[in-house]
Design a protein that fits this description.
Strand content: 15-25%
Number of helices: 11
Number of strands: 12
CATH class of the largest domain: Alpha Beta
Strand order of the largest sheet: 2-1-5-4-3
Radius of gyration: 49 Å
CATH topology of the largest domain: Beta-Lactamase
Oligomer: single chain
Structural class: alpha+beta
CATH architecture of the largest domain: 2-Layer Sandwich
Order of helices and strands: HHEEHEEEHHHHEHEEHEEHHEE
């Protein structure tokens, strides 16, 4: 049977059914053991009472002169003692001589000729309590007590009762059944309630997942705060996933609009400028200025196209990284100097903080330079008056080294910090200030990971932003 046609059941039914089967099985085993134990206890208790009754009867049946007398007083005493046993069928009491000849029975029985002696196996046994099998093959317990006076034995008191009668529990079996039935109902009720409590939020998440699969990302999971850690994590993770899907869907729509706009704008500008030169609307030095502007727009258009191609190549895994041992102290000083010299506006401060010892790492020099320059450009765009950018190199362990790029710019809004590494994502304010595709940080993070490192946002506030590059030290 395939997975599509396989019949499925609800979480509540699945667990309650299996718990009920387990509970019933466990209670049945427990009931059988309890019944056996109760019967065994009742048997031992009643045998002890029968032994006491036999001893008391043997003591009362003999007189001082050595004669055995059975009168109404003895019968009354025996009847009173029998009531303590709580038996549906009274035991048979035999009074015999030393040879086992039956002298008297209680209750009185008709004894046929030839059956007036008890079996020798009973009389000769040294055990006060015996289990024997009689003619109809019923198991019978026999309790005997010697009738003696002044050290002389005059006979025996023998009490016989069937094993099944001694094991009868009367009301105990009913009480046991009521207890087990109550436990069964209570146990099933508890697991049913708990299963519903657990399955209810899971069912809501499952229903929400179906809506998301159908393209509806506007999901509201209104649920009381669950006490179970796992369910809480499931709901929170699902909410976060839904927000990310909603954000990605929004980014995808913005991507088409943004890329189209960002690519169309320089093309339109270039086309208009060149057309103006061609039609001799502008001449002389002005036409050269128009051509210079067109060249810059062409270069910017080429940069955006290269960013798209590089990102796609990196995402497809067709991007090669060439590792080499690099002195990061010297490398960062060179990058900082070269980048500062290429900036048109020099009204900011750039500093490099390096440790005293030389720190080396296995990196791709060109790709690491690309990451750092992208972070420096972002930091420069965020600066305001009295801007400062700081590059710091430090070791965090025997195997790891970090590079911090810190600025005192306007910072990243809290609601945007979780999405800065999403492809094509650009903050609302940045869209208005800087034109681009929003691939700089995602591509830089991919380059860092390709070098067995990482790029992360260490922190951002109104006082500035810190990005951290983590790299693997060279041995």
């Amino acid at each position: 049977m395939s997975a599509k046609t396989k019949k499925r059941t609800t979480l509540v039914r699945y667990w309650t059914t299996r718990y009920l089967i387990t509970l019933v099985t466990g209670l049945m085993v427990l009931s059988i053991f309890s019944a056996w134990w109760m019967e065994h206890t009742a048997l031992q208790y009643r045998l002890s009472l029968l032994k006491y009754l036999a001893d008391e009867t043997s003591d009362r049946v003999i007189k001082e002169n050595g004669k055995m007398v059975v009168g109404p007083v003895l019968s009354g005493v025996v009847e009173e003692r029998e009531k303590i046993l709580h038996l549906n069928k009274p035991p048979i009491i035999y009074i015999t001589d030393t040879q086992g000849e039956i002298i008297y029975t209680m209750p009185q029985l008709y004894i046929a000729k030839g059956d007036d002696h008890l079996p020798k196996i009973i009389i000769n046994s040294k055990e006060p309590i015996q289990k024997v099998k009689i003619r109809n093959e019923n198991q019978v317990y026999v309790v005997k007590s010697a009738i003696d006076r002044n050290g002389k034995k005059y006979g025996w008191v023998v009490i016989a009762q069937e094993e099944s009668t001694l094991k009868e529990l009367n009301q105990d079996h009913g009480l046991l059944a009521v207890m087990m039935g109550g436990l069964l109902i209570l146990g099933w009720g508890v697991i049913y309630v708990l299963s519903r409590r657990i399955s209810k939020p899971i069912q809501k998440v499952a229903n929400a997942a179906v809506q998301i699969r159908q393209g509806n990302y506007d999901i509201q999971l209104k649920e009381e705060e669950p006490k179970e850690e796992e369910i809480h994590e499931l709901i929170e993770s699902f909410k976060e996933m839904t927000n990310r899907l909603k954000q990605n869907d929004k980014l995808r729509a913005e991507l088409f609009a943004g890329v189209t706009h960002d690519l169309k704008t320089p093309v339109t500008s270039i086309s208009g400028l060149i057309q103006a030169v061609k039609d001799e609307v502008v001449t002389g030095e002005e036409s050269k200025e128009f051509l210079t502007i067109s060249l810059k727009e062409t270069q910017r258009l080429q940069t955006m196209i290269e960013d798209l191609l590089d990102y796609n190549a990196m995402a497809a895994g067709s991007f090669k990284i060439r590792f080499e041992k690099e002195n990061l102290n010297k490398f960062l000083q060179e990058i900082a100097y070269q980048w500062k010299m290429t900036q048109d506006d020099q009204d900011f401060e750039l500093s490099v903080n390096l440790p005293e010892e030389i720190v080396t790492a296995m990196v791709d020099r060109l790709r690491l330079q690309e990451i750092i320059i992208n972070l420096l450009n972002n930091a420069r765009q965020a600066l305001m008056q009295d801007g400062k950018i700081e590059i710091s190199l430090y070791s965090v362990s025997k195997d790891r080294v970090c590079i911090d790029i810190r600025d005192n710019g306007r910072g990243i809004p809290d609601e945007e910090q979780d999405f800065v590494f999403e492809p094509f994502y650009r903050g609302e304010k940045k869209k208005l200030r800087v034109r681009g595709l929003g691939l700089g940080l995602p591509f830089s993070k991919m380059l860092a990971k390709a070098q067995k490192g990482d790029l992360s946002l260490k922190g951002s506030s109104s006082e500035g932003t810190i990005f951290t590059i983590s790299l693997l030290k060279s041995k």
